[in-house]
């Protein structure tokens, strides 16, 4: 009973009591009581989101929407009050096998609403329970036709497929499916470990490929640098001196430099060594005596 019917029925009951007490009229009291009963049974009110399906003598009389309306007591019968707001239904599939025979547990949720109250009331007994059953069946069918990798990676495609299949089945009942969302896909623990190792191996493979590409790029740059330094020895010497300078910035560091590197940084060192070898400079001059004659050396 809606608030307006309750208020009017209460007013009629008060008037019936007043007529019986003040005017000592039982007939008037009975009239007001009958009016209260009729108002309570005939005056109905629907909210803006509700639809009342009314049968008259077993046949569809009308579908009433928001506002006040009157029905004929006993002859008219309200068989269903349909809520047309968007509603949600959670459903799942446990131990469902994918196309590659992997058991998974999938949780999903469906958003739906009734767009035709007449069909929802007359075409099916319990449309809420039917939506739940259809959603579970469609979810198992989708899992059975999908590979595990596709089910894990492409959720949007799976959601769209479920929405299309469930919507096609519920449309004759006056129900529209707004969206379907898969919330979780649970796989066995052993398979999780195997997939984790596979993903780690793939990452290591990708890292090695990237490292190899970097080494190839560095090697090509070294080849170009070697060609440049071959034509400009002075540039190579400046580069070597710059490397030594950079390494000596750290205090307390001990740096060992090969003598070959030192010689390479002094371009005059090889020519000087060749000159000394060609001239054969004596290591010690012979001693001269007092008379100007050379002093004979003692035999070794």
Structure description:
With 300 residues, this protein is α+β, with helices and mostly antiparallel strands. It folds into three domains: 3-83, no CATH class; 87-187, Band 7 domain (Tetrahydropterin Synthase, Chain A); 197-224. 53% of the residues lie in helices and 21% in strands. The protein is built from ten helices and eight strands. It has helices at 3-22, 26-42, 117-122, 127-144, 148-153, 155-170, 189-231, 233-247, 259-265, 268-279, and strands spanning 43-46, 50-56, 59-64, 67-70, 76-83, 87-97, 103-114, 175-186. The protein is elongated.
| Count of alpha and pi helical runs | 10
Question: How far is the N terminus from the C terminus?
Answer: 141 Å
- The CATH architecture of the largest domain: 2-Layer Sandwich
Order of helices and strands: HHEEEEEEEHHHHEHHHH
**Roughly what fraction of the amino acids lie in strands?**
15-25%
Low-confidence stretches: 283-293
Q: What is the residue-averaged pLDDT?
A: 81
Q: Say which CATH homologous superfamily of the largest domain is assigned.
A: Band 7 domain
Q: Would you state the CATH class of the largest domain? A: Alpha Beta
Short description:
With 300 residues, the protein is α+β, with helices and mostly antiparallel strands.
Which structural traits does this protein have?
Tetrahydropterin Synthase, Chain A, alpha+beta, 10 helices, 21% strand, three-stranded antiparallel β-sheet, 300 residues, elongated
Ordered list of secondary-structure elements with their pairings:
Layout: H1 3-22, H2 26-42, E1 43-46, E2 50-56, E3 59-64, E4 67-70, E5 76-83, E6 87-97, E7 103-114, H3 117-122, H4 127-144, H5 148-153, H6 155-170, E8 175-186, H7 189-231, H8 233-247, H9 259-265, H10 268-279
Antiparallel strand pairs: 1-4, 2-3, 2-5, 6-7, 7-8
Helix pairs in contact: 1-2, 4-6, 7-8
């Amino acid at each position: 009973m809606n608030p307006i019917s309750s208020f009017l029925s209460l007013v009629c009951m008060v008037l019936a009591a007043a007529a019986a007490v003040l005017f000592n009229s039982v007939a008037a009291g009975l009239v007001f009581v009958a009016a209260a009963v009729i108002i309570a049974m005939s005056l109905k009110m629907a909210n803006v989101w509700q639809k009342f399906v009314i049968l008259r003598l077993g046949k569809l009389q009308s579908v009433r929407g928001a506002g006040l309306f009157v029905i004929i007591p006993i002859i008219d019968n309200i068989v269903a009050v349909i809520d047309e707001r968007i509603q949600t239904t959670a459903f799942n599939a446990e131990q469902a096998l994918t196309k590659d025979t992997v058991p998974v547990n999938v949780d999903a949720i469906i958003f739906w609403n009734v767009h035709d109250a007449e069909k929802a009331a007359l075409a099916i007994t319990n449309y809420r329970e039917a939506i739940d059953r259809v959603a579970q069946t469609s979810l198992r069918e989708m899992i059975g036709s999908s590979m595990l990798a596709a089910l894990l990676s492409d959720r949007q495609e799976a959601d769209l497929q479920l929405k299309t299949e469930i919507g096609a089945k519920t449309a004759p009942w006056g129900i529209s499916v707004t969206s379907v969302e898969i919330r979780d896909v649970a796989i066995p623990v052993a398979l999780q470990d195997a997939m984790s190792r596979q993903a780690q191996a793939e990452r290591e493979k990708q890292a090695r490929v990237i490292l190899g590409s970097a080494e190839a790029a560095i090697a090509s740059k070294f080849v170009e640098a070697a060609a440049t330094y071959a034509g400009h020895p002075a540039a190579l010497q400046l580069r070597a001196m710059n490397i030594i300078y950079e390494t000596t910035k750290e205090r307390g560091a001990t740096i060992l430099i090969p003598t070959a590197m030192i010689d390479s940084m002094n371009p005059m060192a090889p020519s000087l060594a060749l000159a000394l070898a060609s001239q054969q400079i004596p290591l010690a001059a012979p001693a001269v005596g007092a008379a100007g004659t050379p002093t004979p050396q003692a035999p070794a």
